[in-house]
Specification:
Elements lengths: L4 E9 L2 E5 L4 E8 L6 E7 L3 H10 L11 E8 L3 E15 L6 E7 L8 E5 L3 E3 H12 L2 E4 L5 E3 L2 E5 L3 H9 L1 E6 L2 E6 L9 E3 L5 E7 L3 E7 L9 E4 L9 E13 L5 E9 L2 H19 L4
Parallel strand pairs: 10-14, 15-18
Antiparallel strand pairs: 1-2, 1-5, 3-4, 3-19, 4-7, 5-6, 6-7, 8-12, 9-11, 13-14, 16-17, 17-20, 18-19, 19-20
């Protein structure tokens, strides 16, 4: 018995979300656990001509309206159901040449925030968690604060709402990022709370994991329950040097309804990356001192 893929693409049209789950389409999503905006590129075939004209016109950079048009992507399997894996603002819509009716759309998370201005100054000292609550409210997001709370002195911010996450990262020395409807704040390099996800051949790993200077890169069959910032455990029989626990810092999905793509590419850091970096820097200084000629 087949366990069919499910890919639902929601597009805001005239103020209403219209979902398309039967047309041929592809979705590519990239998320990262920092202040970068999550991106999405969607292609969808055989939309009505008036729908294509509306989206191309309304998402044009020359459109005087700054109200973004939302898209949402839900994906999964018939046996397990679907989950929302992306929500963002359409930044560009490009039609194909006739006779094809293919529309390519690009989107960025919370792109409308760059048109908003935020100004905030705290008392002499304030808690990081309180600052994060205010920023989440500015974005109209729920807050998941999982970092060790700390006192921040003389906090001042004046600028685009879209740049506040970068400011929080700097003053708090934390990972701060948007995923779906949440602003997530966690200790730098550490995983979010919850169970450690095992990644192996039996759980959908495709090919061997590859070691790099931050940790590992690994491809797995798409599973909407694998989340950005989650802690995973690699169990590989081919590359045993890669076995161990890591944290997902880059999550990239490639999905298609009528093609082969249905996988995740995960870039993961060692969950002790900060202490390892500090040890390496200390060793470099020690080596530099020992390399100096004695007078």
């Amino acid at each position: 018995m087949l366990d069919d893929r499910v890919l639902n693409i929601g597009i805001e049209i005239n103020g209403q979300m219209q979902f398309y789950n039967g047309a041929a389409g592809t979705v590519k999503i990239v998320k990262s656990s920092d202040s970068k905006q999550n991106s999405c590129q969607i292609t969808i075939d055989n939309l009505l001509l008036e729908t294509i004209d509306y989206l191309v016109t309304e998402t044009s950079p020359w459109n005087p309206s700054q109200k973004p048009k939302l898209i949402t992507v839900m994906a999964g399997r018939e046996s397990t159901g679907v989950e929302n894996i992306y929500t963002g603002d359409v930044t560009l819509a490009e039609p194909s040449m006739p006779p094809d009716r293919r529309l390519t759309m690009k989107a960025l998370t919370q792109n409308g925030a760059k048109y908003k201005w935020s100004s905030r100054s705290s008392p002499k000292t304030t808690q990081l968690s309180e600052l994060c609550k205010h920023v989440a409210s500015d974005y109209e997001l729920n807050l998941r604060f999982e970092a060790k709370d700390k006192t921040i002195a003389n906090y001042v911010y004046n600028g685009s709402t879209a740049q506040q996450i970068k400011k929080l990262e700097q003053v708090g020395d934390v990972d701060c990022f948007i995923d779906d409807d949440f602003l997530i704040v966690k200790d730098f390099g550490k995983g979010t709370r919850g169970e450690v996800r095992v990644i192996s051949v039996s759980t959908g790993m495709i090919g061997p994991p590859i070691l790099d200077d931050k940790g590992i890169k690994v491809r797995v069959l798409f599973d909407p329950t694998i989340k950005l910032g989650q802690q995973i455990e690699i169990q590989s029989e081919v590359n045993k040097a890669a076995n161990g626990q890591y944290v997902i810092y880059n999550w990239a999905a490639s999905l298609a309804t009528h093609e082969n793509d249905w996988y995740l590419d995960l870039s993961c850091n060692n969950d002790n990356i900060k202490s390892i970096s500090e040890q390496r820097e200390a060793q470099k200084k020690t080596d530099a001192k020992s390399a100096k000629p004695k007078s």
